[in-house]
Write the C-alpha cells for this entry.
Amino acid sequence: MENSRIVIDGRALTCAQVGTAAREDVTVAIAPEGAARALAAWRVALEVADAQPVYGRTTGVGANRVVDVEWEDADAHGLRLLRSHAAGAGPLVAPEIVRAMLTVRLNQIAAGGSGVEPGVLQALADVLNLGLLPPVPVYGAIGTGDLTALASTALCLLGERSWLAGPDGEIERGPGFTLRSSDALAFISSNAATLGEAALAVTDLRELLAASTVVAALSHFAVHGSEEPFAPAVQDACPHPGQRAVASAMRTLLAFEQPAPMRIQDPYGYRAFPQVHGPAIEAADYAEDVVAREINAAAENPLVDVAGRTVWHNGNFHTAYVGLALDAARAALFQTMALSAARLGTLAEPAFTGLYPFQSATEASSGIMILEYVAHSALADVRRLATPAALGSAVLSRGVEEHAGFSTQSARASTDAVAAYRIGLGCELVAAARALRMQGRAPAGGPLKGAFDLAAAVLDPRVEDRPLDADIAVAADLLPGLARVQGYSS
C-alpha cells in the first residue's frame, strides 16, 4: 500500500491490507501482472472447456456434476446457477466484512487459476472504490465456499440486483458487468467472505493481544508485582517462543520500575502471564499466516493450470486450515482473557492496591465493583465462542459433498470473541489506571509511562460513584494506541 492506495496483484495481499480496504477510505487498483495472470487463466479455461468436460462450465454442480450442459443451453446455465445459489438468509453481515470479501475475491482472481474473464477485476475494484455493497446475508456458507454471498455479488454485477450504498444502505444501481455464463461457477467458487472476515478478526486479535501486554504491565505496577517470573533465566528454562516474547516485553515495559515486590509469589494473573499469554500470541500469529496464505492462493475448483494448459478438479476449496487455526486462537484467547479478569479481581482488593475495596472513594462506596461483572459477562461469551466450529460436519448434495469444516462459523465466532475481549480488556485498563491515580503513582519512564499518559489523558479522573460505561468505551477505544506504544505494527 502506498499512501491511500492498495495495489492488488494476487500474490502479496496482507490481512492488515484487507482491513484497510474494508474500513478506510482507500483506492483499490489492479497490478498489471495480476490482470495478466487472470487473462492467461481465462484463455486456458476456454480452450480446455472446448476439449473436455470441466466442472461447472460444461456440467452441472454438486450432485449434478454428472449432467452435461448442452451447448444450446450454455448461455442460460450460468445465470440459472447464480439465481439458484443467491439464497442466503438472515440479517446482512457488516459492511466491512462485505468489503473484505470483495477485496479477497479480487486478489484471488488476480492470482490466476479461476479462469474468470479478467474484466471482472476492474469491475470489482470500481465497486470497492465507489463504496457499493452487494447484499450478503449471514447464513449460507459452511466453509466449503461462500456460494450465496458471491452469487448475490454476481447478480449485482449483472444488474439483476441492486447494490447497497452509504451508511443507511440505500439502494443504488452500480456499474454493470456482463459476467459470462461459463464463468458463473468460477466466480462464486470461493471462500472470499469467510477469509475476509477471518483476515479482519486475526488483525484485530493480534493488535489486542499486543495491547494486553501493556495493560497487564500497568496492572502489575499497580499491585507492586514481582518481576521474577519474567527473568531471562526463568524463560530460558522453558523456552517457548511466545512465552519468551511476552516476558521480554514485560521486562521492557517495567524496566524503569524497581519497586520492592509486596509478595514472594504473585497470583497466576501476574506470575503465569507469559505462560498463558504466549500461546495466544503464537496462535494468533499462526492464524494470520494461514489466512494470508489462503487469500493469496489460487484455491479454485477446478483450478486452471496455465503452464500445463489444463484444469485440475481438486479440494482446495476446503478451508480446514483456516477453521482449525481460528478455533485454536479462540481457545487460547479465552485462557488469557481469564487471566485479565483475574487481574481485575486483584485491582479491587485492598491487600493488592492499598486502597479501599473496589478502589472506592469511601469505605462503603461501590467504586469499580461493577467492572468485574462486565468483564466476566464478556468472558462468558468468549468461553461460549471458544467451542471449536470444527466439531461439526455436514453431508450435502445427495451425499456427494460429505464433509464441512465450518470455517465460516469459526470466523464469525472469532469476530464476536474479539469484540468481547476488547470490552474485558477495557475494564482492566480502567481499573489499572484508576488504581495508579488513587495511589498517586505513575510509571517513571519508557513505554509504560507513555501508555499511562495516554490513558490518563482520556479516562475520567473522578472516583466518586458514577456510571462507568463511558470509561469502558473510552478504554476499549484506546487499546490500539497502547498496542503501538509497545511497538506493535500490523
